[in-house]
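Example S7 (structure tokens).
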């Protein structure tokens, strides 16, 4: 089960990184200012996602599912125990 858990963690991690980068790209597609706000202003990403919900909800949902895959893989593989 550790191998399956590790593979789930790997796939989820790659997916989370991919969809995180996609959200940054969406911010820069909107404008240069939004892209810089997304990267450098605290809670700027949250504000961008809320104000541009129509084009950010899918990448955000897939990023959350990817992170759930990471945690499920860690639990399945026994990586959360001491």
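Recovered sequence:
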């Amino acid at each position: 089960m550790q191998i399956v858990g590790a593979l789930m963690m790997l796939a989820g991690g790659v997916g989370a990184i991919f969809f995180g980068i996609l959200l940054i790209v969406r911010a820069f597609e909107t404008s240069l200012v939004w892209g810089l706000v997304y990267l450098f202003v605290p809670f700027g990403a949250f504000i961008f996602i809320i104000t541009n919900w129509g084009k950010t909800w899918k990448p955000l949902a897939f990023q959350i599912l990817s992170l759930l895959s990471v945690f499920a893989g860690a639990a399945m593989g026994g990586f959360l125990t001491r």
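Notes on this example. The radius of gyration is 15 Å.
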